[in-house]
Design a protein that fits this description.
homodimer, 397 residues, Aspartate Aminotransferase, domain 1, Aspartate Aminotransferase, domain 2, 7-stranded mixed β-sheet, 37% helix
C-alpha cells in the first residue's frame, strides 16, 4: 500500500502542534514555568448563559421520547439557516445557500473537492495554513502566493493571480488582523468577475469589525453572489471553539464555467461525507442569534477587542510596529531583524509568552509574530507588564 | 472555474435524499398519508438519562469561567480515548491509536486522503454508499466490487481483490445485516497480509452482535493491527445520530510499503482539516462507556434487536427470504422478481412503508430491500401487521 504522494508535500506537523512541542520541550528543560498563551487563537471566556441554557435544553430534549431527534438535515436545521441569513446577512443571502457545518476549518478541508486537483489557487501570504495544507492534501499543485505587507496595506497585488481559478481571501485577516476596506473588496470582486474566478472568502473574525463602513461579508459587495463562497464560524463569535459550529454560504447563483450550479455539488458533498453539525451545538447557535444572545456575545467580543488594544499599546510603547488588533483579535507585530521562530523562542524563553511565529503562515510572515487577544484580562495585563519591563532591544537591531 | 471532474462520477443525489424525494412526491400526489419509516437507519429512542446528564453538565461547564474549555485535542479527549481502548477494545489497542471524530461517515470521507487517488480499492457489493462516493470524490478510479449474496453467505470471493490496495469491509454489514464469522475475518486478515493490503473495517453496528464467538472488532484477529484501520460510531450504540460522535483506530504498527507509519499521517490529516468532535458530545461518549451508561445502552440495543426480530418474522411468514437482523439492526429482504426501486415503490404506495432499495447499495443489491429496526415498537408492530395483511404475491412471481 503506497502513501498518498500529496502527503509528502506537507510539513510533518501542522503549525499549532509544532508550537505545543516547543512549549513542551521548554518545560521539560526548565521545570514548571508559568507560561501565558498568546499563541493559538483559542477563546478563554465562558459562553453566555442564554446560549448554554439553549444547549442544555437541547440535550435534555434528547432524553425524552417525544422530543428526541436523530439525524438532522446535513445542511443544518432550517431555523438556524434562516436566522443566519436574517441576522448575520440581513437577508442578503437565501437560507438555502447556507450550509451549517462543524466549523470553518472542516469546511475549508472539503471545499477544494468542488474544484479538484487541477485548480490553480491563489493565497494571501501570510494566511491561515489550512488553505494551503487542505489544497495540497487534495492534490492541488499550482499555488500562487500573494504577499501582504505593511507596504501594500496588507492588500495584495491581485494581478499576480490573474491566471488563477480560485482566490482564498480572509478578512479580517488571520494572522495579520487587518480588515479589508470596502474599496479593496470591490476591487477583489471586480477582479474575480473579470477573470472568471471563484473567491473563497473567510469571515471567521467578521464580528470583530468595529467600523460599519467595513464590510462584514463579501456579499455586501455587488455582484459577489456570482463569484464568491463565504465560510464562517461561531467559534470566535460565541466561544464555540470546543462546541464546533460554523457555516458556508454557496449562493445558488454561483456557477462553474459550463453553467453547472456549484450549490448542487456542495449539497452532494456535504450530504455524502458529512452528517450535519451536532444538534446540541446548533441549538446553541440559534440562541447566539436571538437578541439576548447577540447582546451577550457583543460583550465577549468587546472584551477581547480591549485585550487586543492593550497588547497593541504595550508593544508600541516598546517601539515595535504593530498591525491589526483593531477589527480583529490578532495583533501582528513586526520584528524584522530576526527570523520569526527566533523571536518566538525569545518570547517563550525570556518573557514566558507563547506567540505564533509569522513564518508559520507563509514566507511573507517571516519577521513577524502573531499575538492573540484570546485570554483573561489578568493574563493580558500580566503580558503587557512583561513586555513593558523587558527590553526587546536584542530583537531590534 | 472548472468543475472537479470527479463530481460527475457520482449520481446527482446521495441515496437517502433520493428516498426523501420519492416520499415527498408520493405525499404531494396523495395528500397526507401516515407513512412508517423503515428507510434510513436513524435512531428513534431517547438517549439514556445518565448520558444526557453528562452532556448537560458539560454544557454547563462552558458557562463558568473556571471550567470553560475551548479547542480540545483534534484527536479527542484523552479520558474518552482511554475508555474506548479499555471498554470497547479491552486493551487490545493503544489509546494513542484512537482518534475521536464527529462520526464514521465524516472519517470515511477523510480516510482516502491517506492513500490518494491512485489506490485500487475493493468494496463489498452491496455496501454503504459512502465508501464508493467518498473514494470517487477523491479521484479514485480503480474500484473492484465484491458480490455478497445468499449463495456465498454474504462473504465475498476475496481472490477478486488480489490486485487491490485497499479493502473496505463492514461487519455487521450495512445493508445486509450479516456479521462475518471469526473464520471469515481470519481469512480476510490473512488475505490482506499476503497481498500487503490495508483493510478499512467499519464496525458501526458491532454493538448489535449477540454471539460472543463473533468478533466485534477486526483487532480480535491476530495480525490485524498491521493491516487494518477500524472506524466506528456512537450513533447506533447510544442514539447519537444527531449528537455526532465516532472514532477511527489507526494502530501505530500500521505502515505503508515504504515503512512510513500511517498513524502520523492520520494525525496530520485530522489536525489539519478537522478540529475535534464537540466537547459536549465527547462528554456524552464518556458517560456511555461507564457501567451505568453501558447498562442503559444495552437496553436500547436489545430493544432495536427485538424490532428486527419482529420484522424478520413478519416477512418470513409471507414467504419472503430474509437475511441479517440478528446481529444487526437491518433486515435484508429478497424480492428477486422485481427491481429494488419497484419493490420500494410498492412498499411506499401500497403498504405505506418506507424502505431502502437494495440497488442503492450496489448492483448486487438489486432484488433486495433493506428494512431498519430503528423505530418505536408501536410502529414496528403496525408495520408487521401491514406486512401480514397484504399479499406480497404480486412481488413474487
Amino acid at each position: 500500500m503506497k502513501r498518498n504522494p500529496h502527503l509528502s508535500l506537507l510539513q510533518p506537523q501542522y503549525l499549532f502542534p509544532q508550537i505545543q512541542q516547543r512549549k513542551r520541550e521548554f518545560l521539560e528543560r526548565n521545570g514548571p514555568v508559568d507560561l501565558i498563551s498568546l499563541g493559538i487563537g483559542d477563546t478563554t471566556e465562558p459562553i453566555p448563559n442564554a446560549v448554554v441554557n439553549g444547549m442544555v435544553a437541547a440535550a435534555e430534549r434528547l432524553a425524552q421520547k417525544e422530543t428526541y431527534t436523530g439525524y438532522g438535515a446535513e445542511q443544518g436545521q432550517e431555523p438556524l439557516r434562516k436566522m443566519i441569513a436574517e441576522v448575520l446577512y440581513h437577508g442578503r443571502v437565501n437560507p438555502k445557500a447556507i450550509f451549517v457545518s462543524d466549523g470553518a476549518k472542516c469546511d475549508i478541508g472539503r471545499l477544494q473537492l468542488l474544484f479538484g486537483p487541477s485548480a490553480k489557487i491563489a493565497l494571501q501570504d501570510p494566511a491561515y495554513p489550512v488553505y494551503r495544507d487542505g489544497s495540497l492534501l487534495q492534490g492541488v499543485s499550482n499555488i500562487t502566493y500573494l504577499p501582504c505587507t505593511p507596504e501594500n496595506d496588507f492588500f495584495p497585488d491581485l494581478s499576480l493571480a490573474a491566471h488563477c481559478d480560485l482566490l482564498y481571501f480572509c478578512s479580517p485577516n488571520n494572522p495579520t488582523g487587518v480588515a479589508a476596506t470596502r474599496t479593496q473588496l470591490e476591487e477583489l470582486v471586480a477582479f474575480a468577475r473579470e477573470n472568471q474566478q471563484i473567491i473563497l472568502f473567510d469571515t471567521a473574525y467578521a464580528a470583530y469589525i468595529q467600523d460599519s463602513a467595513i464590510p462584514r461579508s463579501i456579499y455586501e459587495i455587488e455582484g459577489a453572489e456570482e463569484v464568491a463562497i463565504e465560510t464562517s464560524s461561531f467559534s470566535k463569535i460565541a466561544g464555540f471553539t470546543g462546541v464546533r459550529l460554523g457555516w458556508t454560504v454557496v449562493p445558488e447563483t454561483l456557477k462553474y464555467e459550463d453553467g453547472h450550479p456549484i450549490h448542487s455539488d456542495w449539497n452532494r458533498i456535504t450530504s455524502t461525507i458529512f452528517n450535519g453539525a451536532s444538534n446540541i451545538a446548533q441549538a446553541g447557535g440559534i440562541e447566539v442569534l436571538k437578541p439576548e444572545g447577540l447582546a451577550e456575545v457583543q460583550k465577549l467580543i468587546h472584551f477581547y477587542r480591549e485585550n487586543a488594544h492593550l497588547l497593541r499599546e504595550a508593544l508600541q510603547k516598546q517601539g515595535i510596529s504593530v498591525y491589526g488588533g483593531v477589527h480583529a483579535p490578532y495583533v501582528w507585530a513586526h520584528f524584522p531583524d530576526a527570523p520569526s521562530w527566533e523571536t518566538f523562542q525569545y518570547f517563550l524563553e525570556k518573557l514566558h509568552l507563547i506567540t505564533t511565529p509569522g513564518s508559520g503562515f507563509g514566507s511573507t510572515g517571516e519577521g513577524f509574530i502573531r499575538l492573540t487577544a484570546f485570554n483573561s484580562r489578568e493574563n493580558i495585563i500580566r503580558s503587557c507588564k512583561i513586555i513593558a519591563n523587558n527590553s526587546l532591544s536584542s530583537l531590534i537591531l
